[in-house]
Amino acid sequence: MHAPLTIADLCAAGPFLRLRSFRTIPETDSTNGELLQAAGDEADGAVLAAEHQTAGRGRFGRRWSAPRGAAILLSVRVHEPRDSVLLRLGGILGAVAAAEAVGQATGISAALRWPNDLALGGRKLGGVLAESTPLAPNGAFRALVIGVGLNVYQQRGHFEGELAQKATSLEMESTEPVDRRQIAAALVARLDYWLGRTAGSGDGAAELLGAWRGRCAEIGQPATFRSNGREIRGEIREIGAAGDLVLRTAEGEMVRLDAATATRVW
């Protein structure tokens, strides 16, 4: 049984620029949901990590589950102007930060798959869910919540159904012992870096997208997505400035997909 994450673990790489309030809890329905629900009552810069989620979810309400203590289940919340670039790039920011944290803590180079997945050897290692809600009284600011789920200690039998063939964990892939505490500390530090670097800065957004592209091995590769009831097959050509994806179909049509509405057919 692995020791629960502590606030000291999360803060180990501090001090931080944007993140300032830390909590760890044994269980919640969803770390994202809990931070969204408290958005109007709590200050900017919250971090919440849980050992277990009873109703963890990914994009489009998909179920996301992990054995207790086997994964990193962590969300952060910041308050941003409603025209902030972070509201468009939250998912990409979380994915870049997670991949960097994995590399720093384990030496494993995780690839990024648009719009929100981390992968190793073609198998899913983790995912990111970015959500936002308006803040009272006039909606000039929104609370942005970025949730990261990383498979750390799972073994093949922990993955249900088709995930048994499509998912993996850091322990399964590493030839060295994996320390969840080190990964969590690195994750908080990289989230804080990119939140501070990107807010209000065109240069920061460009740097973030460059970091994402540098970890994406899919440019020029075939892929299939569903968007607005349509299945679209083609070659991935580019990731746009708003985090959208440009796909070139076999007929030569250039299709721009929005992360809010498009989902990958694995």
Characterise this structure.
- The structure is a single chain.
- The chain folds into two domains: 209 residues, 2-Layer Sandwich (BirA Bifunctional Protein, domain 2), CATH 3.30.930.10; 43 residues, SH3 type barrels (Roll), CATH 2.30.30.
- By secondary structure, the protein is an alpha+beta fold.
- Strands 1-2-3-7-6-5-4 form a seven-stranded mixed sheet, with helices on both faces. A five-stranded antiparallel sheet has the order 11-10-9-8-12, with no helix packed on it.
- β10 and β11 form a beta hairpin.
- α3 packs antiparallel against α6 and α3 packs across α7.
- It is globular.
- The two termini are 32 Å apart.
Helix content: 25-40%
For the sheet with most strands, the description reads:
7 strands, mixed
Number of helices: 7
Give the CATH topology of the largest domain.
Answer: BirA Bifunctional Protein, domain 2
Termini separation comes to: 32 Å
CATH class of the largest domain: Alpha Beta
- Contiguous low-pLDDT stretches (5 residues minimum) are none
In CATH, what is the homologous superfamily of the largest domain?
Answer: Bira Bifunctional Protein, Domain 2
CATH architecture of the largest domain: 2-Layer Sandwich
Element order, helices and strands?
A: HEHEEHEEEEHHHHEEEEE
